[in-house]
Recover the amino acids of this structure.
């Protein structure tokens, strides 16, 4: 099995964090789509672990979140009360 070196892994993660799609990341980094998917799953699990261990006992009054959002279910103008 081939293993990516640290710089190649960092390049893939950097591309994904910049908002590139999996296919575009694979093309830009010269690797297989399955490699990008596997690495993103591994990185997600590592981030969950780090976050669970290090981000605890916060007393935040205001939380500012990123502006990235997506539709879930349907748009507000066509939503019924049951869907809201």
């Amino acid at each position: 099995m081939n293993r990516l070196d640290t710089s190649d892994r960092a390049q893939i993660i950097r591309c994904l964090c910049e908002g590139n799609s999996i296919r575009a990341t694979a093309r830009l980094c010269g690797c297989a789509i399955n490699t990008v998917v596997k690495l993103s799953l591994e990185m997600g699990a590592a981030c969950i672990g780090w976050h669970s261990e290090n981000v605890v006992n916060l007393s935040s009054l205001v939380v500012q979140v990123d502006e990235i959002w997506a539709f879930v279910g349907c748009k507000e103008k066509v939503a019924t009360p049951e869907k809201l």
